[in-house]
Amino acid sequence: MGAITDVCAMLGAVETKSVSPVFVGRAGELTALTEALSRATAGEPQALLVGGEAGVGKTRLIEEFTAVARTQGAVVAVGGCVEIGADGLPFAPFSTALRALHRRLPEELAAAADGHEGELARLLPEFGDVTHHEPAAEDSTARLFELTVRLLERIAADRTVVLVLEDLHWADASTRHLLAYLFRTLHRGRIVVVATYRADDIHRRHPLRPLLAELDRLRSVRRIELARFTRTEVHRQLTGILAAEPSPVVLDEVFERSDGNAFFVEELIASHECGTALGSLSESLRDLLLVRVEALPDDAQRVVRVVAEGGSTVEFDLLAAVARLAEDELIEALRAAVGANILHAAPDGDGYRFRHSLVREAVSDDLLPGERSRLNRRYAEALEEAPGLVRADARANRLATYWYHAHDAARALPAVLRASVETRKRYAYAEQLRLLERAMELWDDAPADIRRGLRPMDYAEAYPSCGCDPDTPLSYLDLLAEAAVAARLCGERERALKIGKMAHRLLDNAEDDDPLRAAWFWVERARLQSNLARGDGWDEIARAQELVRGLPPSAVHAVVLAFAAGWGMLRNPGADALAAAERAVEYARLVKAEGTELAARLTLGTIMVSAGDIEDGLAEMREVGERTLKLGQFHEASRAAVNISSALEGLGRSREAVDVATTGIAMARSHGLVDSAGWVRANLAESLLALGEWDRVQEECELLLRTGAASKPGGTALLQLAHLAVGRGEPAVAAARLAEAAARYGTRDPIPQYTLPMKHVATTVAAAEGRLADVRAELAALAGAGFPAGTHRYGWPLVLAAVTAEADARGLPAAAEGRAAALDAIRRCVRSLAAQAPVWQAYGLQVSAELARAEGRDTAERWAEVVAAFTELDRPHELARARYRLADALLAEGGRREEAAALMREAHATAVRLGAHPLREDVELLAARARLPLHAPEGAGGPAQPEEEAADAFGLTPREQDVLRLVAEGRTNRQIAEELFISPKTASVHVSNILGKLGVAGRGEAAALAHRLRLLEPTG
User: Fold this and answer.
1) Which of 626, 631, 624 is nearest to 132 (CA)?
2) Cα–Cα dist 146/386, whole Å
3) Neighbouring residues of 940: CB distance < 8 A, sequence distance ≥ 6
4) Cα(971)–Cα(982) distance, rounded to whole angstroms?
5) Is 1016 helix (H, G, I), strand (E, B) or coil?
6) Cα 327 to chain center, whole Å?
7) Which residues, listed in sequence order, are joined to residue 225 by a DSSP beta bridge?
8) Beta bridge partners of 80
9) Phi and psi for 670 in degrees, rounded to 5?
10) Which pLDDT does position 949 carry in this prediction?
11) Helix or strand holding residue 76 (H, E)
């Protein structure tokens, strides 16, 4: 390596004269970059995009900026996207930049890895061996991204870091996704991230275009576009290159031919200085770029052609092996190419690259087809003979690319498959998919004996091992299985669906039946139906179950049963789902598929709790959580935290649920599982809402939404915020949150844990806005079908909201029609709801009491039972509401005013603490009507003051009470006048006075308030 470095350093110092030593123009752009550096140094992370056409001067601007950054003490790390043929290496710019940081700050970078070296080794092999990955874990890529962002934040905590990522137009999909994640989530550290791209390459279908559009929407990202040079700037550039004033003729011709493109200016003047008249140069850009190449000695031209086909950078020893020149001849050839400013020594001193990619592209395009294939074969043969010629992390991809472009299917197929395995290990699923598609393209062209020598254990992991002969060769269907999973994991779900359909067509036309493989592909298609919001996936699951029915236990059979059980757990946790989960566990144990077994056990425990086998179900889930942590299966361990906290909340054990969720969030976050942490945090918010910690609910939900949570946890956070808005008397806000949540959940796959809470919010909003017909419509739809098993936690609050609306509307003429049917629907719903835990038994008592109130037969005794039930629970809002109802009932029955006053004071204190404005208003109105103080007077202990006239607290005169009674019956002003023998105008004046004294906006509100506060009933 030392000799190589010496050669590269020696040639890197060769003087060139086509580049201006003077930095021309770009003052505004450089100022923008240096200002970003200052803000970053002050602790505010910066993100910038620098775009411009090829040759406009992006690299020179970045070089000037990084030089300034270094003089100010910043650590600079540069990485470029790699183009090898048409393929980009996964995460190449990040790997290169991290490698630069590792060379500069090895100890600091190791400390910043914080114990996650095994994961981060997927980007930087210098961290050591890659940890075992969880096959097909949905959030494995997101986890790697989160750990990478944390690494950068930590390394930039006490020093300024400039991270430059060049040539995004060549970026692979994984690099683009990581960059988007970095720009969205980078919130701490003294760091500047600058990414450059070639703007003229970004056509309408270019894969970078959607990313640029996404980043433009982020206020934290600044975009800088470089324009071409003006004539004055070209004059300055030529003066710097020539070290003298250019003649007006040369200036005019160069400016006209280059059109202000800085690189073209350099090429034109270099050709002119070599003796070529400017007027004789071809109009073709390629010909222009090749002029100086063709002026090189033959050996130098030969080396330049070799480098052009080797990739963005070619290592010296690899170049020597492919060029097949004597060492002295090679060095002289390189000296000529470097001296002509066509090649440069690589920044790391280990190889050569073109000074500008435009020249490399021109040289590569000028190669003959046979010449290109021959060069790629030489590269591949040299690399196979001496694998150490390139870094280990790049070897598989480079070899696959070389053999593919050598058009040798026999050698290319195994190489491409090996590269696909390496990209899978790096969680670069988009690149894995491209390689697998290339393998499928090569499959038929590869000789049969080559295909027979390939083994599934070496190249495939998606389709479960069937326990067959280890000498069974890899099949085309194995490739389809790998490609289907890779497409799903990288977000190309439409492509994954097409691959699955292709597999089923092949299976349908095959001579031999393969029901297990067909079933496995149906499970994959079931996942995609839900992911694409095209259905719930049950039809696909049913077909998979039918295919495996009656077959001996197998890993595929266990997968099918586990997936069916998981489907049932979410949508219909009944006997069928329980049986499927039990069989999945049994079959997985028989075939020693522990991953499937643990997933099935977690599902089984959840269903057991729903079925009433509470403690055994919780124990099962806790065992899975402990085992998955021990095995390092953190995704499944996070799922255990989700399910356990949810099950505890469903039992009303909210404090325990909070503890489990808090621990689960910390565990998920520590391992970079942001999406998993989002699921657990959504459960935490639900439990905090039940416990009356409403301010924390707001904080947790907003945090979850800020962190870019997956759609469904985000939907649950929005639902909790909607519940909170209802409780705080903001129905319009609640309706808006509900609409946002519905958009996240979609409509094609209705899952009760989402649809029922949404109906609950819709019901409470409709009730708050006085839309009783909508309340009844929501409940009528549920009454017909009843509530599915295990959904009582969502059903009881929904039914309570509906029956409370009916009770509040009792006595209103507009509510009379349909009341009997509505109350009957409520009773039918109640009969379908289980009450297996004390909290739901308390809800049952409250629903019963509200039913009695809706029918005018509620008693203080009923409400006392409700209060007693909620007193034993940690449900402050429900308890306060029950105390309010009991106080109202005590006052209606007469006497016990001291007890009523104490209940109201407790309810009022809770409402004030929570910010529950509707409850607070109800209590205050009741206290005003009853003339009871909400704050105990000094020396309290004597009897409460006796109540005077019932409605007197609102200042209603006896005549106004008569008018209010008729308003409540739905009479018009003329009808009121006739009834009371007064004029319609006088009746109108009375109505206006009543509305003002009650503080309501209309006759309907006045009537509702009168009934709710019993203003029209005598009090004792």
Assistant:
1) 631
2) 36
3) none
4) 14
5) coil
6) 53
7) 51
8) 166
9) -65, -25
10) 42
11) strand 75-80
Tokens of 299: 């050996």
Q: Is the backbone of residue 259 left (phi > 0), alpha (psi -120 to 50) or beta?
A: left
CA gap 848, 854 in Å, rounded? 10
Confidence band for 135, pLDDT divided at 50, 70 and 90:
low
999 in Cβ contact with 929 (< 8 Å): no
**Backbone dihedral angles phi then psi of residue 46, each to the nearest 5 degrees:** -125, 145
Instruction: Give the list of residues 6+ apart from residue 900 with CB closer than 8 angstroms, or none.
Output: 886, 887, 888, 890, 891, 930, 932
The angle subtended at Cα 801 by Cα 798 and Cα 803, nearest 5°, is: 110
Average pLDDT of 58-81? 93
Q: In this structure, what token pair is assigned to residue 802?
A: 């509906």
The confidence band for 946, taking pLDDT boundaries of 50, 70 and 90, is: very low
DSSP for 925-975 reads HHHHHHT--SSPPTT--SPPPPP-SGGGGGT--HHHHHHHHHHHTT--HHH
Report the DSSP pairing between strands 343-345 and 352-354.
antiparallel
Query: If we measure between CA atoms, which residue out of 225, 192, 154 comes closest to residue 44?
Result: 192
- Residue matched to tokens 């990414």: 195
Which residue from 912, 917, 913, 891 is spatially nearest to 902, judged by alpha carbons? 891
Give mean pLDDT, residues 491-510.
94
Long-range contacts from 18-23, C-beta under 8 angstroms, 24+ separation: 18/241, 18/266, 18/267, 18/269, 18/270, 18/273, 18/341, 19/241, 19/266, 19/341, 20/236, 20/237, 20/238, 20/239, 20/240, 20/241, 20/266, 21/240, 22/236, 22/237, 22/239, 22/240, 23/60, 23/64
Q: What is the 3-state secondary structure (H, E, C) of 159-226?
A: CCEEEEEECHHHCCHHHHHHHHHHHHHCCCCCEEEEEEEEHHHCCCCCCHHHHHHHHHCCCCEEEEEC
What angle, rounded to 10 degrees, do the helices at 1003-1012 and 958-968 form? 100
Segment 635-670, tens digit of pLDDT: 999 999 999 999 999 999 999 999 999 999 999 988
Tokens of 693: 């910690």
Q: How many CA atoms lie within 13 A of 832 on its CB side?
A: 18
Query: Which contiguous run of DSSP H or E holds residue 470?
Result: none
Asked if the model's pLDDT at residue 14 lies above 70, the reply is no
How many Cβ atoms sit within 10 Å of the Cβ of residue 494? 11
Query: Which residues touch 506 (CB under 8 Å, ≥6 apart)?
Result: 476, 477, 480
Going by C-alpha positions, the residue among 425, 400, 379, 406 that lies closest to residue 91 is 425
Q: What are the structure tokens assigned to 317, written together?
A: 């020893």
One-letter amino acid for residue 367 of the chain? L
And the tokens for 584? 């999945």
Give, as one character, the DSSP assignment of residue 1018.
Answer: -
- Written as six digits, the tokens of 40 are 């970053």
Tokens for 718, please give them. Answer: 């929005």
CA–CA gap between residue 1003 and residue 956 (Å, rounded): 15
- Closest by CA to 631, choosing from 656, 657, 603, 594, is 594
Contact between residue 182 and residue 216 where contact means Cβ atoms under 8 Å apart: no
> Which two three-digit tokens encode residue 523?
């499970």
Write down the residue that tokens 């090189």 correspond to.
296
User: Strand, coil or helix: what is 46?
Assistant: strand
Q: Is the dihedral of CA 85, 89, 95, 99 positive or negative?
A: negative
CA angle, 512 then 518 then 520, to 5°: 140
Report helix, strand or coil for 814.
helix
Nearest Cα residue to 927 out of 945, 953, 948: 953
Task: Name every residue whose Cβ is closer than 8 Å to that of residue 15 and which is 6 or more positions away in sequence.
Answer: 339
Q: Environment class of residue 659 by beta-carbon count within 10 Å: exposed (0-12), middle (13-18) or buried (19+)? A: middle
**Prediction pTM value:** 0.83
